[in-house]
Amino acid sequence: MKKRFIYILLALATTAVNAQNPFITDQFSADPSARVFGNRVYVYPSHDILCTEGKGRPGWFCMADYHVFSSANLTDWTDHGVIVSQDNVEWVDASGYSMWAPDCIFRNGKYYFYFPARGKDTTKGKGFSIGVAVASKPEGPFTPQPEPIKKVHGIDPNVFIDKDGQAYLYWSQGHIYVAKLKANMLELDGEPSIIANLPTEGLKEGPYLFERNGKYYLTYPHVQNKIERLEYAMGDHPMGPFKVTGVIMDESETGCWTNHQSVISFNGQWYLFYHHNDLSPQFDKNRSIRIDSLFFEPGGAIRKVIPTLR
Ligand code: FUB
Questions:
Q1: Which of 28, 145, 151, 224 has the most CB atoms in a 10 Å sphere around its CB?
Q2: Which of 230, 274, 251, 262 is nearest to 22 (CA)?
Q3: Which residues form a coiled coil (predicted)?
Q4: Ligand 1: distance of its center to the CA of 285 in Å?
Q5: Per-residue pLDDT tens digits for 47-81
């Protein structure tokens, strides 16, 4: 009886959080990287805008800057404003509107914000590089490094610091890559490697790694039927080997081409952050970020998330 009552309370609590989707409604937002810093959740998303003739590439992704949002209760969100803009990073091509999915992590009193963008220096290729901006507070002000991280070409950076203090950078470029980071969090410590044993067909991007009960969960969107499905693989070490384990969110649950996830535990509950194009049903490159509760099976498998709509 007591157990049933707890389940009902849990269900009500879940509904209360879910009922807000999407939870940022005054601007478009995508690719949410959520982090718990102190007693607040900070979300570092991409900021979708609309490219027009002469400004970026109309009909495509268009992002010029990043905001950070925070909340103590996942209901009331504070927009801390722009933390990094394509106009204030030396190496970024400011005509690119290419400030795609970022991440942020805390180490030794500093917050390290990782972001991909196309650089000015086309001799290094037209593709994306990944830069870092550093701050003393999670909401900034952030100071961008003058150069992107060497030997990293791709998008969707994600950083994980293991219990032994070793930091890892994950990113994607067709495949998902991993490399150790030096303690300064600004340089690779060794060569990047492609993470093996992931699906061979269909684009995989947006890596996000978290640890629970000694198991490492590598989560990623994987294109199925032209729509990204959120999947995960599990392993015993941050660099793998990983074994493809399951689906977090089916592609049939969203009509949006892209999806992009992060996972946190906050006040004893796990949450999945992701996006959909709720506020722009006709144009799926103007997206909005969502939260849903995440649950695990007793053996550690992730239970599929059914998105909560408005
Ligand atoms: O937001 C631009 C790109 O779309 C991201 O980098 C991908 O993960 C996808 O969400």
A1: 28
A2: 274
A3: none
A4: 9
A5: 999 999 989 999 999 999 999 999 999 999 999 99
